[in-house]
Amino acid sequence: MGASDSKLVFKKGIFRLSEERHIPADDAYWAQFWELPESSEDIFSLFAPADVRRTRDNALENLETLIAAVTGRLFMLRHHPSFPDHELAPDREALNCVRVLTRVLPYIYEKESLQEWEDNFFWSPRRKRSRKSSIASEVLFDGADGVPKTPVVEFEDAKPLAEELIDTITDLLFFSDLTVPKVPNGNAKVTYSIWQTGVGCTVPIATTKEQESNRCEILRLLLTLASKSMYMSLATLPQTGTKALTYICTCPDKQVVLSVLCSLLNTTLKYNPATWLAPYNALVPNHPKQVLVTSTLQFLLTTLLYPIPENPGLPTPKNYYRHYLGRLHRPSDFQFLVDGMTRVLNQPLQGSYIPGAHAAVRFSPEIIMLFWEVTQCNKRFRSFLIDTGRAYDFVILILFYALEYKTDASKQGVVRMCAFLLQTLSVEKNFGTNLNKSFDAQDTLPPAIRIVGFRGTYADFLIQIQSIYALITTSQGKLTAIYPALLAIINNIAPYLDGLSAPTCSKIMHLFNSMSSPSFLLANETNHALLRSLLEAINSIIEHQYIQNAQLVFAILRNKKRFEALRSFTLESGQEEVERRNRRRKDSGASNDPLQADSTRSSLDSLRSPVAPSSRAPALGDVPEEDGTFAIGDDEDDSDDEERPTPAASSPSENPSRASSVASPVDDDVPRQLRGMSEKARGKMPAGAQTFSRQNSTTSLGSMSQSTPGVFEPSTQWIESWLPELPLHTILIVIQQLSALIPRQAFASDPPLPATLDKIREIQLLGVDPSPPRVHSFEWSPLALGWYESLLWGFIFASEVLVSKGTMGIWNATQIKLFRVQETAPQGPSLTSPRGAVDAVGSNIVSRIGQINLRGATAPGGGGQAPGGGAQAPAPRSG
Hints:
The chain is mainly alpha-helical. A hairpin with an 8-residue loop joins strand 6 (691-692) and strand 7 (701-702). The two termini are 44 Å apart.
């Protein structure tokens, strides 16, 4: 449509679509939608959002006929014996049909009142003209004598329109001379040949730029079909799902699923801009190959993450994409996955003389998400990572991104995902054991994650960088939701830590001093759960690795007064201490402790009111806005690898829980909800407490109760409900026995004298028996699934805005419900940032993800946090 008169004809035709009612289905008018446009830009610029909405609202029957016409034409072309032929069955016409559907579908999805019409039109069985009749009409009309002939019209029963559409465009992804190389005459046009070498393919196939471009356009339509998710509320999405994704993910045809899965996976992980003519991807953000890789990665993730909704009374089908990803087992395949993901994530850690040449790849957050997915669903891959030592490369990379983004409000979702990913890795025993390896390459790291003068193990690096002073104490209170996950990581590796360094032990004690301070404990009703988690980690180190961790024992002895004071803590003494600290802070003008900052009120309050008043409460840098604590569950499923903690279908529950860091002990003779609790605590379990079960998960979700919103007022009864349950017994025994055997002056030396450490190692503790290691696993819940899916769709939305330069995006200016989008002020153009960005303000709902519940109480479901990644971080709409 290069000529302006053709554009004018097409635009007039679009006006007719909304102004003239009931245009006949056999009118030649409809052909212009696949004959006139010459590019995607023509359709997206001339078929404006206002035009689509006006047709939808004023002439819905015309929109229905348009969709029927372009899908019918697409189906006919796919089965035409000459397709793709520039004269008889042009591929341009098929692509224009794809583009029109990509354009109009979001405006159908956004209007909730069309749900019933959408279900009937797209998802109900129908009658249609037979394929033979449709193709015959084309052939007969263009007879050799030029005289139109009247074909015999035949009808047949057909599957729902949406199902046939998905089948057709899936076939087009592997269609000869359209998206894959041309096959010899006489062979099947749909080859299902894997696009790139890698998993499942060792023989490369030649591909042209046009074929790669066609793949992009077809993948965009598949993403658009799946994007119904964007127009659902976060609370509804995991339970209801979308019919398009359900149909795609439950496809029983193994060849189709494996061809799509391997093509998407291999294309993504073969990403290597160094082989392009313009290797500096940060300076060429819309390079065609990068656009293709982004599309393949995002559609791959939509299939892998998707939780199949449950139908009461019926078995829930498998998500076959997750199933087959979990079945990978060849070391060569795992090596391919590791190398591909490392290549992308390692980009910003490489040096270059060209500014921006090695900036973070735009889809790095999605690669982190892919790594988490493979780690969750493939047990053999986890073993490969740990056994080969590659897990520690990823630990460093994940820490880099978490620390890089920790103060960026638009990337908070990525940081949370990094924490949950590390928690997933930490549940493996060998992971914790191998962390004792010396980390000698620390000096080669970027300044963002380098510790000056560091000497120690990977465990020292992980604790010092990740849990104590970087993500907790320097995140300015933005990451309170993941503090439980960070502490759970320490808990998981604690039984295996060997020889923690003096700086690491010092930071653990600093964190204990801050968490045990009255100002922190009295800040809200759940902070004591974080203290309990830290004490459990210290106990685990002492019980399992006492001799190897004399430095930690020395640090405990130096801080014995704080441990002893905690045992005799009362409301009155705590309030007096808070007042004294406030007076000193007022006199000095500021607090020196980064953990003693002002916190806002509970996130639950903010969830209920868009503008919630704040309360002043010293806490861990705005710590725990959450209202719950550890939920008790167990890690019990050793069945199919692909079924391990995965965002899979959730069964309805009266009180669906939030995602949490779950303490799950090894023993099996205690009911799940009561494990790891004292007899006194077990007696306080609410009667009839329900659990939330998930298909394909190894962890069961304990329910939690909701706290009454409002300003928290500590009471003596409240303190007595948790103080006796703090696990101080082991630590106090150590203090009691060693203080009597080691002279007081020995503790005046810092660092300790070697003789003091030797003395500590020689002392045999009495009354301290190792308890079974406890696994604190990340748990999936409806809330967590909603957050996770919204995170992905936020990435997809932001990426599309950047690729389309903000003007012709698929979902621009549509009424998205899954998250809130705000435009930022336009930025000046630059090489690495040629246009503005999409901004979104993260809400407080995600603070409920990763919350801890030590007593197995119940908490409300619903709500959730939208993503914090992509160009900017979308956040969920209220209501």
